[in-house]
Amino acid sequence: MGDIRQSLLPRDVLSAAKELLYHLDIYICNLVQSGRQPPQVDSKTLELVEEFILHAPKDRSTPARRMSALQELQLLEIMCSCFQEQSRDTVRQLMFSALFSLQGNQADESRMALLSKLVSMAIAVGRVPILECAATWLQRTHRVYCVRLAQVLVDDYCSLVPGSVPTLQNIHSASPRFCCQFIAAVTTLYDLTSEELTPPLELLQMIVSWIQDDPRLVLITFLNSPLSGSQPISSLDVTPLGGLVRWCVKAPLTYRKEKKPALTNGTTESEPEVGPLFSGLHLSVLQVFMLLPSILNEKGLFGRLALLQVESLAALTSDLSRLLDQADKHTHTSSADTHSLSQLTLDRLAQALQVAMANGALLCSREDLRAICSRLPHNNLLQLVLSGPVMYYNNIHTPPLAFSPHAAHSPIASHPTHPAHPPHPALPPHTPLAPHPSSHTQYPAQQFMTGMPFPFRPSH
Question: How many CB atoms lie within 10 A of CB 326?
């Protein structure tokens, strides 16, 4: 395509960009039909994209071309139509990659600006092909740029234009893949480390409603993507589970706000209560964990692939330790309130750890888990999880951690009854002991773990 540059130079900026998009579509269609594997856009074509669509000057002597706001809007409409009319997904994905894959040069800022506006428009007008391409882009791009795109979309639909959240919420049914990647990006962006990095209430309500309606939504990328070593290390996590666990666990401490002063009529002005939202989200995340055994077994990955990373867990417990120390120093809440919120945080952490380990999402030994949680204050439920039985993942038929041999007072039906051994011929027959009055099934005792006291009564 390098030979069309001279024909584009005399044109105005919008006409040149439109003409290049037309030729780019033809070029990629021919590239796909040629059967070349993998199909790859050549560098000269990428240079044309940077010069005539992103308006990065080819050299210092060439003045930069600029579009007016109206021309830029027209270009976005042309791009929406171009992707909508192209029926082959392979061509669309290659074209999107040619336009917006980051190249590590000065044109990347223009790429991000145009991409953010295009995706925001695609949400507004319901252009699903662009959202599907954007989902792939979010899956393959460095998380720093994914977070930037998410920030623009949150600003557009949750801050700048009041009442526009339903427009963003409606894409749940149109493009679940994009929603999954969007959740992964916003949970990476809003890590609850400061007021600025706390998700807006409208965003929180939308994400909670998405996941409650369809818990499998957060697994869409994992379910539909081939697992290979090509996943960039710096990209977003394959599921947003780690970020969602962080939200649920840290919320009781980070969303604590002073009550607003009473108004003249005696009422108080306050934001809607977020506690039930995070409680519902926490339940949904636990339900997602419980879906994993059948999915991981089907893929042959139970005990081999951790969807909840130990590194993110270590970072979470470090943040919790700091937040809990700060909570003890707050003066605007009573000591009882502080203790209650701290225990709620630790209860949610313990529940997430137990259910994640029991269902193969977290591959971590109890010893490592105790080391990670060593700086946290005492919590009965967390202590129970840390003192639990050891889980081995080399055999996928090993009973899960949630299984307790003392949970029922009757033998397990699936265990066969073993016949009694005949007496040893060289010894007199052994007189059997009287049966124990309890009907508990006998199991080998767990080895006692020294240095891990477990109180049988809650400490006060």
Answer: 10
Helix (H, G, I), strand (E, B) or coil at 444: coil
How far apart are alpha carbons 77 and 177 in whole angstroms? Answer: 23
Preceding peptide of 39 cis, ω within 30°: no
Query: Any bridge partners for residue 262, and if so which?
Result: 268
Q: Report which of 112, 96, 114, 115 is spatially closest to residue 104, judged by C-alpha positions.
A: 112
Predicted TM-score of the model (pTM): 0.81
Spatial distance between the Cα atoms of 382 and 376, rounded to a whole number of angstroms: 10
Distance CA 386, CA 449 (A): 10
User: What average pLDDT values come out for the chain (460 residues) when binned by 10 residues?
Assistant: 82 93 94 85 92 83 80 96 94 96 92 97 96 96 96 94 90 95 97 90 95 95 75 87 96 66 40 85 97 92 90 94 82 72 95 95 92 94 85 44 37 45 52 49 41 41
Q: Find the helix or strand (DSSP H, E) in which 78 lies.
A: helix 69-85
Instruction: Report the alpha-carbon distance of residue 290 to residue 351 in Å, rounded.
Output: 12
Quick one: pLDDT at residue 264? 40
User: Could you please report the per-residue DSSP string of 42-55?
Assistant: -HHHHHHHHHHTS-
Cα 12 to the chain's mean position, in Å?
43
pLDDT of residue 1: 64
What single string gives the DSSP state of each residue in 311-367? HHHHHHHHHHHHHHHHHHH-SSS-HHHHHHHHHHHHHHHHHHHHHHHHTTS----HH
Question: Could you give the CA distance from residue 94 to residue 328 in angstroms, rounded to a whole number?
Answer: 54
If you ran DSSP here, which 8-state letter would residue 268 be given? Answer: B
Residues 305 and 210: beta-carbon distance below 8 Å: no
CA distances from 407 to 28, 302, 404, 419, 437 (A): 61, 24, 5, 25, 18
